Amino acid sequence: MAKPHHLFLLLLLLCATLEFSSSSPSDHLYNVGELVPLFVNKVGPFNNPSETYEYYDLPFCTPDPIVRKKESLGEVLNGDRLSNALYEFKFLVDKIDETWCQKKLTIDQIATFKRAINRDFYFQFYLDDLPLWGFIGKLEEDGWTPGGGGPNYYLFTHVQFDVLYNGNRIIQVNAFGDPNRAADITKDVGVDVKFTYSIIWNATKVRFENRMDRYLRASLMPVHQQVHWFSFVNSIVIILLLIGLLALLYMRHLRSDLKKYSNANEEDNEVGWKSLQHGDVFRPPPNSSLLFAVVGTGTQLLILLCVLLFLALIGTLYPYNRGGLLNWLVLLYALSSVFAGYTAASFHGLFAENGWERSASLAAILYTGPVFVVASILNIVAISYRATIGLPFGSIIVILVLLTFLAIPLLAFGGVIGYRFRSKFQSSSATKRHPRDIQQLAWYRRTPFLMFIGGLVPFSAIVLQLHQAYASMWGYKIYTLPSILFATFIPVILIIALVSIGLTYIQLSAEDHEWWWRSVLCGGSTAIFMFGYCVYFYVRSNMSGFLQLSFFIGYNACLCYAFFLIFGAISFRVSLLFVRHIYHDVKRE
């Protein structure tokens, strides 16, 4: 266990590492003629959001020297690599056809630009912490001729910046390459190129506090709103149907079973789900330490997700808050480790006196281990491509330090607290020494079919929102409606809980007492459908290349695995409450 002063120094390091970056003047206030910070960030193919490179990897003119901006951990994880630019912005100072570079492009440099233009490369800059994009050139397919010619390549040599301001603050900025002022680089010969830019300042009445609303408007288009609300209504309808079915199940079957069993003789009690009360239904399952680790890790990730949604609701996280989401994600994952240790140890203590350390240790590596392996492979791929998404050695060390000196001690602390304050499990009867044999089940009562039903029903409630989320993650559709996302997530949890109760009852009715792991698999199977949909999304998209495919599959595998643990933990908890409730009623009667 780390000493208190070591933990204090670690927290200071954490605050320094995860600080959110801002423009040079921290209050974003500028006087007339004052320099406004502009940073070039990255370039990449439009259809491959994960494949990005440093701006100066293309043979543009470079400042001397190139000064890289100090970045937070979240920015590095996001693939941002900000550097100084040759463009000069002065507040409220217009510039027309200002030359910032003049050079002769060699044949190799022209070939590099042609490859970039052929793949629709775009650039991203930041002005006063506002993102702006533009294309570096254009490709005209009309250049094809019967004589065997090819397309024409044009490199944009003039960029126009339109900046809106209110008082002494910048509100909005746009950039676009002028297609009428482009250099023809179709032929493989050296070309003299002069790069210019213009800056036009215009006043606006939009307040500084509302300058990010322009990104919100993209998600508030009528079609997008209709899709969001249709998805929410779809979830509510499914919940009402499931409540009706479970009410019918409880009123007509479960209550009648309880009444029948209470009035029947001993021999009649040996059929149906009540027959399991003699010691099998509460028998700890095989690999119970792993099961409790799944529940602990799932609980941790559920709390993490809820906190992130809350931060989005109150406006702490917003679109293009550079690295903000990943900063919070890394910090909250480390801090929430205490819940994983507490939950795993407390559940272990319900059924065993010793060995809680094994459950807590498994909880420490159950999600972190696979993610670390996947991230390491993806990082090797990114570095081989020289992509900005590859993590430098220093960032890897920071993450390992956070996990070693913050996450692991907190998980151990939670484990100790969970075991010390554990409650004793009260079973309705003593556990038998040998489990009873389970009869051969019909195909519709076996695990694969129950997993299919347990995953399909919740997935049908989130498929529309899932498409919007994937379009935001892997496209350029800005998802800025956390309220709808949160309003959809709550019904999904209710749907998983209701489906879990129904499937557990069906299993017990077939005199199958091995419900523990099956409840986890049935609840978590929704994530399998999610992963299947991500594959469908990739096939329908314009993404291509090994780098993009690797990151798409790897990231989505980690994401869906996290939801498998979350939904599995929810399903297990609800199933345990349901089983304890009905067998408590049997014992009472």
Describe this structure in words.
The chain crosses the membrane at residues 229-251, 290-318, 330-352, 364-387, 393-421, 442-464, 484-508, 520-539, 551-579. It is a multi-pass membrane protein. Belongs to the nonaspanin (TM9SF) (TC 9.A.2) family. The protein has 589 residues and is α+β, with helices and mostly antiparallel strands. The protein has 3 domains: 28-210, no CATH class; 220-256 and 443-543 and 561-588, no CATH class; 282-426, no CATH class. It has 15 helices and 12 strands. The chain has helices at residues 4-17, 73-77, 107-118, 213-216, 222-263, 288-313, 324-335, 337-351, 356-366, 368-385, 393-420, 447-473, 482-509, 516-540, 546-588; strands at 38-45, 53-54, 83-84, 95-105, 121-127, 130-135, 137-140, 152-156, 158-166, 169-177, 182-184, 191-203. Strands 1, 2, 3, 5 and 6 form a 5-stranded antiparallel beta sheet that branches. The chain has a 4-stranded mixed beta sheet with strand order 4-12-9-10. Strand 1 and strand 2 form a beta hairpin. Helix 10 (368-385) runs antiparallel to helix 15 (546-588). The radius of gyration is 29 Å and the shape is elongated. The model is unreliable at 1-25, 219-225 and 266-271 (pLDDT under 50).
